[in-house]
Amino acid sequence: MASRSKRAVAVAREESPTVLWAIQPADQSTVRPSTDIDPAVPLRARGGDARAFAELVEHFHARCLRYARYMLGEEEDAEEAVQDTFIRVYDHLGQFRPDARFEPWLFRILANRCRTMRSRRWARESLVVTGELPVVAAEAPEETRDLMDEVESALDGLPTEQREAFLLRHVEDLSYEDMAVITGVRLSALRMRVKRACDALRTRLVQEQERGR
Amino acid sequence: MDAERDDIIEQAAAALRHRQWRSPRAIARILATVEGRPRRWWRAVTWPSAPFSLAATGSLAAAALLLGFLTRQATDRPDNQRQLGGIPAARTLPVLPAVRSTGEALPLPVQFTLRDVQASQVALVGDFNGWSSAATPLEPGEVPGTWSVTIPLSAGRHVYAFLVDGKTWMTDPRAQTARDLDFGRANSVLIVQAP
Lengths: 213, 195
Prior knowledge:
CATH superfamily of the largest domain in chain A: RNA polymerase sigma factor, region 2, helix turn helix motif
Distance between the termini of chain A: 30 Å
Oligomer: heterodimer
Number of helices of chain A: 10
Largest sheet of chain B: 6 strands, mixed
Radius of gyration of chain B: 23 Å
Strand content of chain A: under 5%
């Protein structure tokens, strides 16, 4: 993961025509956070260990918030979806099977919460959301923020199903098997969604890049 | 690198991963919410750090059963008794979903049965016991391959399944099934109706 980032920067300096930006990570954890958690932790939480549940929340909260933010667009909605998710996890930990993996189980709940939140939001689309933004974005250089805005804008243009598939596959780094558990969609359909999302993003970003030259 | 990943996609994904949202207050809010959440009675039973005591749960179930029987004796009308046909009301119905409770707060004994000749142990898991695989084991019957347990259930909708040999999740063939959207598994549904 570290070598990939360095490679991206190095390639950018050589002005390869396929490289759009050089992302300089603030630290390794912001590039590809570790997705693993000791399988004993969810089991301890399932057994009633409050500290283990807190550990689960601490470990997965930032990733869940990022996924929800990209799916929902609004920070307040994202935070609400994530909070609902963890409360639902707490209430249903008894259903979590000891031989199952926690990550896809969690993301399945989160993905459902996001879908519910999206449909609810359409019903109140005319309302203006105001108030405190409780979320603190990590520091990033000015030029990187511009690039991220461009990518986010391209992501926003994708149909919801493609955006969901792209985020799970390429941002959360999940396997297609895990994605099938999370979305309830067949592997072949998921692969097609990811391919279409990649094609659309690639086209849009190259166009943006050419427009900026 | 697989076919769908090229430098553009890699960098777009890296840009998206790069943006992190941290919210210590949101984490604190979640933990405070669950801490103040009322614990259901089965959690008190299934979540102790000490070894699980079947004897204690058995006593509780026996007391609830006795209370349910006494109340039924005192309050049931004859037509109601005919409809229920005795204790294993759920067993005598063609489909499990509806049995009648005799009082709003009082549980009704419900018998769950399964036939599986290959099973060496069977547990009843459901929302009424916190989906605990240890709380409600089925006892083998006199006929080989039959398993049953009777527990008190309050009025309302209950979702459950059988866990065979600690690993195979089975719905009740006599009951309606429902699939949980979040968890993806099929479960059985039992509705205990208040009069």
